[in-house]
Structures are given as structure tokens and as C-alpha cells.
Design a protein that fits this description.
6-stranded mixed β-sheet, single chain, 5-stranded mixed β-sheet, globular, 27 strands, DNA-binding
DNA sequence: GATTTTACGTA
DNA sequence: CGTACGTAAAATCT
């Protein structure tokens, strides 16, 4: 059955999907069924009713199997076949006849049909002139079908529909009346910099060329529609032939960056480059639109293109990056300013001011840590490389001897063929999201361990040995800087480059990221030495990292049982609270003697015995059950890890909940809070709006949010305090989520003083429901990062 | 050549 | 139904 356009003639908004589904075809109406229901809900949230819109699809008939490829000549779906051409003609005549003011294109096919564009994630949220019927506005967004699969697309899609509705009242495609200058003369640029000095705040953005992160374009603007981009390098060639003239420009830029408040989008990168390459300190840089977005909407993408699509009504510009870089940069600047004006209010109204200020205070530390880097002991490095290569080679040689042929053990395909094909071992499968998904085999570590346990086949041990050594090589066989250091970029908001093959990476241009409120660590673009992420170095590889300077040591301070303490107060577990109070500030020996240990306490509850009688094995059970529970893992995890029956694991878990009924009450409370505004607040006032689909996955991440982010925020707060007060005495070297490392002179006096300084900064009292508590701090000291020993505060 | 999948290290 | 992150190599798609 043909499904044709439906809706009132004279409607301002037309909504175009891809093709009718099974249900639509049966009923003969577009957008009925699951996707139609979602569309209706989205429209309601955008203050427009479904009845007031024209609804249709690009094609009127459902393709076989629902696969739109049927209508195309090529797999890339860019060349239409005769059938599609016919359908496009009918769609065009429908549009001309009904004259909608605005077309919402849902999904890739509608986008392509109406504008010729193909990348929905890049085009969505921006208004295009239709190529199918020129003069008609098109605003693309995600198809409800895609949103039903990937729920994170819902928020932008609703924002897009709102924008489309708002723009359906304007007569034509709006002219761009902004004043953006991409090729000013030197004189004009100098005048503009002077003009900037009279303004309370300016927006700034730089473009850089890799390698070396040399600044080729500097852009600055005074409002959302007034910006200028000055080109310093065209390709590799300087635009200023006179070196002194160029230096004069940089001095003037430095003057502005020092004395005028500035806003940037991910200025952590820009500020670090300006400091590293040009010696310019950005003292005025106190506002950042990416940090604002992180505080307000921690689960949305944070690229400027996304933010602008949601906050502003400007034309798309990201596609101009290659061909018109200066024009692109001027747009970046103006749109950063525009987003700043919107987000400034959003920060205040959403109650994020405090969180935002605290995150901005961390900016200077991340700049500092990136440029400082960590020293590597080259001899130790060579030794580790040699050892791990030998281990890998030995394991590989024995394996080849055993199976009689070479194999690439890094190829999951070849390993699977070996294990499940030639050796005929029982296939191990990946866990599926739903039982409807197809089963795929896996050869990962867990699978190998399970197979080894079951079959005792020595080949499995060899594969595991090889993989372990081979993985370690990745961490130790790394390139060092000329001064023998590695560098990392700490990301407060978690901005990162996720595309490994992209050469010219733009660091503030990444989507697809969800932040959990902790810093992340990734490869520094400015100083690309080391394995990149410094937060996942294995213990063995840590042995080559050393403190710089003669006769120095690392001092580590980390929060002790931090999340367990937080949870005990949140759920009001009096037993545990009392235990933490008794052990606070006491030595580890003292705590062990009196059984002041959270896992022993858990074992007490599970086995119903006094704390002094808990055996090591029982403590292990206690630890695991608590652990599994705090991450809402199931009994299967416990059963697997302890090697016990599923029923027994279930009993443990039930027992646990019976003994601590507060936990389930708290779960209920969390769910209630989520239901009210989808927002939770941690113990330091950070709010997190959860956008996931309603269900267990959402609940699980919500349960862990409060304790996890509280501890992360505390550590970062302590880091800021320490940096301000004590960094000149013993400088910070590393941040590891709930631990900080500093470099200290190796004398008992210096170490003791440093420990006290760290403790002073980390002892942050938390008040929750009228009770105040602190989280205790543990210390370790050592000559390398991998060889550190526990010390007491007073030692 | 670009994108997706698989695997694995830390907290 | 453990989760969060970043990186590398292989597999797959165009």
C-alpha cells in the first residue's frame, strides 16, 4: 500500500522520514507505531502538535526487508535508481504544492533527498536551503528509529525540533548579517586588538598546525556577531616577512590575553599552546564554554558545533575548515561568544556556578602538568623492554612448536580459529545486551582463563603469557622527549580525540563522549611523547617512571576506602560509620589489630561471626560481595570470581541486603529523585542530569554517581589547594582519580612535611544531612612510581 | 583510506 | 547485565 503525505494544507512544518515501516504500510499512514509514538512525544516537548504538521516519507512504499538500499544504485546510497528518482519527483511536487515553511528531515535518507548532504550527525541542528526545492528551509535531525536505538540522540533531536518550529515563523532563509572578518590587514588587526582592550570580555580561538602545534591563525571577537581572524602562517609560510613586525603583533596579543577577560572553547589547549610556543600567559582566561557545557549537560557532546547547534541560530560552518580556515576560525570565535552568553545563564539557572568555578580553577594545573611531564629512567626502560620482549618471544616460540605453525596472536580471528576450530575447545561467547542479539565468540582474557581452568591445555597458558608480555611492551617501548620525559594531556571535561587515523586532530572537535566527572588523560598533541594515557599504566611499567632532580622520591597520597566511606554516610549505615570514625587517623597496624576493616565488617555480617574470627578467605568473600554490590553486579560475577555455585552467590547477596537494608532503601530514593528531574547532586554540590533511557542501566550509573564523583571532586579540590600553597616546595607530578603524586626531596624531614601538606589539603570536611565527616588519607613513598611503600602520616 | 570491532591497562 | 577512560591492532566497509 502506498503511504502518502498526511496533514493539514497550509501547515508551516513538514516532517519527512525515510520510508514506511511494516505498520505504516498496513495502516497507510506515515509515522505510526513505535517510531511514530516517539516522534509524537518529541513534538509535544517542542510545543507543536503532530496534527498541525505535514507528515511524509522520501519514498511511499516500503522497500523489501525495510532496507533503503533497494532505492539506490550503490552501497554508499548516494546514486538513486529510477524508482528513487520517481519518488524524489513526487516529494518535490508535494512540497511545491503544500508550500511548508520549514521541513524537518528525519535521518540520513531525508537529509540526502532534501539537501544532498549525507552526514546526519554533522548536519543536524543547522538550517539548509533545500536542493530538492530551492528556497525551502530544511532542518535535519535524527530519525526516531535511530533514537530508539541510541537514546543519547533524544536531547539534541528535541532541541532541533524546537529550533525548526521557532524558525518556521520567519519568511525566508535569514541573511547572515554578522561582521566576521577573515582577511584583515595588519593595521586593521592592531586596531581591533586595541578595540578589544576596551571590552569587558572577548572570545578567542586559535588554529594550529601539526606537528609542533604552531599557531597559524589567531581569532578574537567582541560579540556573537563581531569577530576577526588573523593568519600568521599559510601552510608553512609566515605571512609576516618582518620578524619584528610579527613579534610586535604577538606582544599586543599577549597584552590582551593578560589584561582582558577571555572566553574560549576548550581553552585548556589554546592556553597551553600559547604558553608553550609563544610564551604568552593567558591570565584573563577565566571562562570556558566547554567547561560550562560539561557542568550543565555532562552527557551531551561538547564540540563547539554541537553546542552552537543547540544554543544559537547560525549557519553551519564546520565544513569550511579546510578551504577557508580563517573564515572558519572567525566563525568559531563568534559562536564561542554566542554560546558563552547562553551558557552563562544556563550555569546560573541550573545551580552550577560553584562546580563551574571549581573546574576553572583546575585549568592552570592541567596546563602545568602537561608541560612539565614525567621523567623516565632510560636504563630501566631499556631493561623492561628487553625483559618483556624476551618473555613474549619465549612464549611465542613454544607456542609455535606446540601447534606447528606461526600465528598472529593479536588477531582475535586467528586465535578463535585455533582454539575453537583446530583445538576443538568449547566456544566462549561475548555477553550480549539482549538474548535476541547474535552470539559472537571471544578469545579475551576471561575466556582464556575459563578454558584453562576447564581443560588445563598448556597452549592457553602460553597464549596468556605472550599477551601479557606483549601488552607490557606497548607501555614501556615508548618514545621519550629530548629531555627524557613523557607528557600527557589531562582533560577536566574529558575532551579527547577518539579517531586514531585522523592526522590533523582538532582537540575541541570531538563528539561521542560521556563524562563521569573525573579527569581523563590522553596523548598530548603539543608534546606527543609517551603512551598517552597516564592513568592506565600497569604496575610493572611504572617502575621506569622516576621523580626528577637529585635525591628525590615520589610521595603518593590517596583517599582510603573513599567510596565506601561516602556510601556509609549517604545510606546512614551506622555500623560502618562508627568503624570509619574509630579508624580515622589511626595507623594501619592499629586498624588491623582491632579489625577496623570494611571487608572484615562485611564478612562479619555475611557469616554472623565476631570480627576477630574472620579468616582471610572470609574477608575475601566480604570484599567481593561488597564490591559486586556497590556496582550492582549480579550473583554470576560473584560465583565466577569465587569459584562457587550460583545459588551460593545468590545467598551471599541476599544475606548482604538483609543485613544492610538501608542500601535498597537508598536505591529507591535514587530512583525517586531521578523520576523528579533526572538530576542527582553529589556531596559537594555537583549536579548530574541523566539522559539515558529509563531502566536498570540508568539506575546503575546513577547509584555510582554520588560516591564516585564526590571522591573525584574532593581530590581535585585538594589538588587546587596544594598547587596554590605547596607546589613550589614539592611539585605535583600525577593525578590518578583518587590519588595525587608529588616529587619531594628524599629526607625524612622533607617527606614528613610534604605528607602533612598533602594531608592538610586533602582533609576536606563533608557535611551530609547534618553530619560532618572526613575521608582518611593513606601515604606511599618510593624512588620510582612502581616501587612505593606505605608510610604513616607521622613516620 | 576510513570506520568499526576486539582487546586490555588503570581507577 | 560492572563502569569509566584511552590506545592499538585487526577486521571490515567503501
Amino acid at each position: 500500500m502506498l503511504v502518502t503525505v498526511k496533514g493539514p494544507p497550509g501547515a508551516k512544518v513538514m516532517i519527512v522520514g525515510e520510508a514506511p515501516g511494516e505498520h505504516e504500510e498496513r495502516v497507510g499512514e506515515p509515522f505510526v507505531g513505535r517510531n511514530g509514538d516517539l516522534l509524537s512525544r518529541m513534538l509535544v516537548q517542542s510545543d507543536i502538535t503532530r496534527q498541525s504538521c505535514l507528515l511524509t516519507n522520501v519514498v511511499r512504499r516500503r522497500p523489501p526487508g525495510g532496507n533503503i538500499k533497494y532505492y539506490f544504485e550503490n552501497a554508499a546510497k548516494t546514486v538513486p535508481n529510477e524508482l528513487m528518482k520517481q519518488e524524489l519527483g513526487i516529494l518535490a511536487s508535494d512540497i511545491r504544492r503544500l508550500k511548508p515553511n520549514m521541513i524537518i528531515a528525519l535521518g540520513r535518507t531525508a537529509l540526502w533527498a532534501l539537501t544532498g548532504q549525507t552526514k546526519i550527525s554533522e548536519c543536524r541542528g543547522y538550517i539548509y536551503n533545500s536542493t530538492l526545492v530551492p528556497g525551502i528551509k530544511v532542518l535535519p535531525t535524527y530519525h526516531p528509529g535511530a533514537i530508539n536505538d541510541s537514546w543519547e540522540m533524544l536531547f539534541p533531536a528535541i532541541m532541533d525540533i524546537r529550533k525548526a518550529v521557532a524558525n518556521s515563523n520567519t519568511p525566508n532563509i535569514l541573511a547572515d548579517t554578522r561582521c566576521l572578518r577573515a582577511s584583515p590587514s595588519k593595521r586593521e588587526f592592531i586596531d581591533y586588538l586595541d578595540y578589544c582592550k576596551t571590552k569587558p570580555i572577548v572570545a578567542v580561538d586559535i588554529e594550529t598546525a601539526s606537528p609542533g602545534s604552531h599557531i597559524d591563525i589567531f581569532g578574537i571577537g567582541v560579540s556573537a556577531d563581531d569577530a576577526m581572524a588573523f593568519t600568521f602562517l599559510r601552510g608553512r609560510k609566515p605571512t609576516q616577512s618582518d620578524v619584528r613586525a610579527e613579534l610586535d603583533l604577538w606582544m599586543r596579543i599577549a597584552d590582551v590575553m593578560n589584561n582582558v577577560t577571555s572566553v574560549m572553547h576548550n581553552g585548556m589547549y589554546d592556553a597551553t599552546v600559547l604558553m608553550h610556543n609563544n610564551g604568552i600567559a593567558c591570565r584573563g582566561y577565566t571562562e570556558d564554554t566547554m567547561v560550562m557545557t560539561h557542568c550543565c549537560w555532562p552527557e551531551t557532546p561538547r564540540s563547539l558545533a554541537f553546542l552552537s547547534s543547540v544554543c544559537l541560530n547560525v549557519p553551519a560552518w564546520k565544513h569550511l575548515q579546510m578551504d577557508m580556515p580563517a573564515w572558519y576560525n572567525a566563525n568559531d570565535v563568534a559562536n564561542t561568544f554566542g554560546c558563552y552568553e547562553v551558557m552563562r545563564d544556563e550555569v546560573i539557572e541550573g545551580g552550577h556556578s560553584n562546580t563551574y568555578r571549581e573546574e576553572m580553577e583546575q585549568v592552570e594545573i592541567t596546563d602545568y602538568l602537561q608541560l612539565r611531564g614525567i621523567k623516565v629512567d632510560k636504563e630501566r626502560q631499556q631493561l623492561l623492554i628487553k625483559e618483556s620482549k624476551e618473555k613474549a618471544e619465549i612464549a611465542y616460540a613454544e607456542l609455535v612448536k606446540a601447534i606447528g605453525k606461526p600465528i598472529n596472536l593479536n588477531s582475535p580471528k586467528q586465535v578463535a580459529q585455533l582454539l575453537y576450530g583446530e583445538l576443538g575447545l568449547p566456544p566462549q561467547y561475548q555477553r550480549r545486551k539482549s538474548t535476541k542479539d547474535k552470539r559472537t565468540v571471544t578469545t579475551d582474557k576471561k575466556a582464556l582463563a575459563r578454558l584453562l581452568l576447564a581443560t588445563k591445555n598448556p597452549i592457553l597458558q602460553l597464549i596468556m603469557d605472550f599477551k601479557k608480555a606483549d601488552k607490557l611492551i606497548q607501555f614501556v617501548d615508548i618514545q621519550l622527549s629530548e629531555t627524557g620525559r613523557v607528557h600527557t594531556s589531562y582533560n577536566i571535561t574529558g575532551a579527547t580525540m577518539s579517531r586514531q587515523n585522523t592526522k590533523a586532530v582538532v582537540v575541541d572537535d570531538d563528539d561521542n563522549y560521556q563524562s563521569f566527572g573525573r579527569w581523563s588523560s590522553s596523548k598530548s598533541i603539543i608534546l606527543p611523547y609517551g603512551s598517552g594515557n597516564l592513568q592506565n599504566i600497569p604496575g610493572e611499567a611504572r617502575k621506569m617512571y622516576i621523580p626528577d632532580g637529585d635525591n628525590t622520591v615520589f610521595v603518593q597520597a590517596d583517599y582510603k576506602q573513599a567510596e565506601a566511606v561516602a556510601v556509609s554516610y549517604i545510606i546512614n549505615d551506622n555500623n560502618l560509620k562508627r568503624m570509619f570514625q574509630q579508624s580515622y587517623g589511626k595507623s594501619n597496624d592499629y586498624c588491623t589489630e582491632l579489625g577496623l576493616d570494611v571487608h572484615k565488617m562485611t564478612a562479619c555480617l555475611l557469616f554472623g561471626i565476631p570480627v576477630t574470627e574472620v579468616t582471610k578467605a572470609q574477608r575475601k568473600v566480604g570484599k567481593l560481595v561488597r564490591h559486586a554490590n556497590s556496582y550492582s553486579a549480579g550473583p554470576k560475577v560473584i560465583a565466577d570470581q569465587l569459584g562457587i555455585k550460583l545459588a551460593e552467590a545468590k545467598r551471599f547477596q541476599e544475606n548482604y541486603h538483609n543485613r544492610i537494608p538501608q542500601l535498597k532503601l537508598w536505591y529507591k530514593e535514587v530512583q525517586r529523585e531521578l523520576g523528579e528531574g533526572r538530576t542527582l547532586t553529589n556531596l559537594l554540590g555537583r549536579k548530574h542530569k541523566f539522559l539515558k533511557r529509563w531502566g536498570d542501566e540508568l539506575f546503575r550509573s546513577a547509584y555510582s554517581f554520588v560516591p564516585q564523583s564526590t571522591v573525584g571532586d574532593m581530590l581535585n579540590k585538594a589538588l587546587v589547594r596544594y598547587y596554590k600553597e605547596f607546589n613550589h616546595i614539592a611539585p605535583i607530578a600525577l593525578q590518578l582519580h583518587d590519588a595525587m603524586y608529588v616529587v619531594c626531596k628524599n629526607t625524612p624531614e622533607d617527606i614528613r612535611e610534604t605528607k602533612y601538606n598533602m594531608y592538610t589539603c586533602m582533609a576536606i570536611p563533608i557535611t551530609y544531612k547534618g553530619e560532618t565527616f572526613c575521608i582518611d588519607v593513606d601515604f606511599k613513598v618510593g624512588p620510582t612510581w612502581g616501587e612505593m611503600e606505605e608510610q604513616e602520616l607521622g613516620d
